[in-house]
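Data availability (excerpt). The following record was deposited with the supplementary files.
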Amino acid sequence: TMQTGCLTGGVKRSSGANVLSNVSENWSKVRDDGLPNTDWLICGFLEGSKTDVTTLFIGGGGVEALSNALKPNTPAYGGFRLRSNGRFVTFFHVGDETTSSLLKGRVCLYKQAVFNIFQGSDCEVTVLPNVTTEYDVMMQLMDKIPSTKHTGHMKRRPQEQTVARPAAAGAVKPAPRNHNFQPNSASVAKTTTTSSVRKKPMYYPYESLKNISDSSPLPSGVDPCHREQSLTAQEFIQVFGVDQPTFAKLPKW
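Predicted structure:
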């Protein structure tokens, strides 16, 4: 794998990584629709080698099973298919506090060389050992998926305009308002309750909800822990690839 950069003066040099052929072969199995029980791959350094990257684990069961297969102190790369929408994403794990700094540096240096093997994936996410679920990944994707108005994958429907039409013959006209009517306390309470029940939820464009680390810039009424609930149904599907009822069924633990 060749790299260029300011430190090399623009001269091409090798990254030093040697990704073995079994990695691409096994990734093809993950992408194969005919193998539904194979949906993730973990690769890392071949035992005793500082440059050879090989397949460590391949399996099924979604990102939860992948997360459980990761070893906290062992650096690794990988990719998987999301069960909810079939999208392919990649990740890399640098290890934990017991992993040597030299090993962490090497795994970071080789990351792009390994990721080049994961064809069909379009995003990198964070996967942690024993804790990451598909719900966690979907929430990460909310901040990583570009707006559709830039990608052009889906077109928005033009907003419908309300057009006044003449009343049909024989239509019942509304009764004139009684401007002298003074509501009593019971009717006020009833009206207030009805208004609160019928209050429409507020929806905001994806651009105003993504990449928010501090809740202060969020639009009024948006729950910072559940920003996805402030997307319209159409934009929700554009961002997550599934509708809201399907997303709500994803396990959160």
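Summary of structural features: The chain is about 30% helix and 15% strand.
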